[in-house]
């Protein structure tokens, strides 16, 4: 959802990044998170393994780059109708989570971050912060900005996103969409109940 920053040294070749991203996405669809390895990515991308190792230090970072770092993020514009706006945001986020590469990557990424909690900051920056910004804009457009304490807005967002993520991982698409709408409705009620 954002772009990666360049590191010192030789400039990054966008063709290499594109080939690596395509290779990772194909491997995820073909065999899930477990199928992604530096060796297989390098083979499919037609680059040397050291090229991949130097740019992405861990498998989790490589997968996150492929599914989050350069994806287009176009949140729906808030209208001021809290429940309807949350429902639209839930639909957009759920559809992203249900794309085959992201859906295939989620279980492995969750496990990878459980084992390496210091990597959470990168995942939050790439995948969570843009959605939080859209969520906060919805709360503001509904006139609840300042009425609901900021920590409570963030907590409501965490519950909203957790519900969508778990739903995407465990339900078929029609059920997931229905549950996403329920998450939006419950979040609407929770936020309105937090007005100070």
UniProtKB/TrEMBL annotation:
GO MF annotation terms: DNA-binding transcription factor activity; transcription cis-regulatory region binding
HTH tetR-type domain location: 14-74
Protein species of origin: Nocardioides kongjuensis
PANTHER family (alphabetical): HTH-TYPE TRANSCRIPTIONAL REGULATOR BETI (PTHR30055:SF234), HTH-TYPE TRANSCRIPTIONAL REGULATOR RUTR (PTHR30055)
Keyword Cell membrane assigned: no
Residues annotated to bind DNA: 37-56
Keywords for the protein's UniProt record, in alphabetical order: DNA-binding, Transcription, Transcription regulation
Protein name: AcrR family transcriptional regulator
Pfam families cross-referenced by the UniProt entry: TetR_C_11, TetR_N
């Amino acid at each position: 959802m954002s772009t990666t920053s360049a590191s010192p040294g030789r400039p990054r070749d966008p063709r290499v990044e594109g080939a690596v991203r395509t290779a990772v996405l194909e491997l995820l669809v073909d065999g899930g998170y477990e199928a992604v390895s530096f060796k297989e990515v390098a083979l499919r991308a037609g680059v040397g393994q050291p090229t991949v190792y130097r740019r992405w230090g861990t498998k989790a970072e490589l997968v996150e780059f492929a599914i989050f770092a350069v994806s287009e993020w176009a949140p729906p514009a808030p209208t001021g109708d809290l429940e309807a706006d949350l429902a639209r945001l839930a639909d957009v986020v759920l559809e992203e989570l249900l794309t085959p590469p992201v859906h295939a990557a989620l279980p492995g990424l969750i496990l990878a971050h459980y084992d390496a909690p210091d990597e959470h900051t990168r995942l939050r920056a790439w995948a969570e912060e843009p959605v939080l910004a859209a969520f906060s804009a919805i709360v503001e457009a509904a006139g609840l900005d300042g009425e609901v304490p900021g920590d409570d807005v963030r907590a409501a967002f965490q519950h909203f996103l957790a519900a969508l993520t778990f739903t995407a991982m465990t339900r078929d698409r029609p059920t997931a969409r229905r549950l996403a709408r329920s998450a939006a409705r419950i979040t609407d009620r929770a936020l309105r109940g937090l007005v100070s």
